[in-house]
Amino acid sequence: MIFNYNFYKTPEHRWYADIPEWTGTIDDLEMVSGADTMLDILSQGENKINISFSDNPLHNSIKLSKINDTPEIGGAEYLFTEYLGIEYNIKIWLCDVTKWVFDYLPEKIWII
């Protein structure tokens, strides 16, 4: 399944996912621990970005590979390896909102 969400950066330089159907707190939607850095790279200086993502390969997509689950805090760590031919190899942590979206924590997530 393909999901599509907007992400936005506040004047305080904090990234959030815009998930209208989310019933938790706004703090749950903050992108931290490398995910914010990844969004800075993908957004190329903009304060908003729309991302489609799937647990199945997408044409011309970026692959995030799960490194390990983090049950003590929820979610999992993933590796963001490259974008536009530039190698990054950044560990990012995606919280349990990822599990809520997919109903599980995928081994691989493809984003465009």
Structure description:
The structure is a single chain. By secondary structure, the chain is mainly β. The chain has one domain. The chain has two helices and eight strands, in the order βββαββββαβ. It has an eight-stranded antiparallel beta sheet with strand order 3-2-1-4-8-5-6-7. The mean pLDDT is 96.
Average residue-wise pLDDT: 96
Order of helices and strands: EEEHEEEEHE
The secondary-structure class comes to: mainly beta
Oligomer: single chain
Major sheet attributes: 8 strands, antiparallel
Work out the helix count.
2
Name the shape in a single word.
globular
Count of β-strands: 8
- In terms of DSSP E residues, the strand content is 35-45%
- Supply Rg: 13 Å
Q: List low-pLDDT spans.
A: none
Question: Brief description of this entry?
Answer:
By secondary structure, the protein is mainly beta. It contains two helices and eight strands; from the N terminus they run E-E-E-H-E-E-E-E-H-E. The chain has one domain.
Question: Which features would summarize this protein structure in a list?
Answer:
112 residues; mainly beta; eight-stranded antiparallel beta sheet; 2 helices; 14% helix; globular
Describe the secondary-structure layout.
Elements: E1 2-9, E2 15-18, E3 30-31, H1 35-43, E4 48-54, E5 62-69, E6 76-83, E7 86-94, H2 96-102, E8 108-111
Antiparallel strand pairs: 1-2, 1-4, 2-3, 4-8, 5-6, 5-8, 6-7
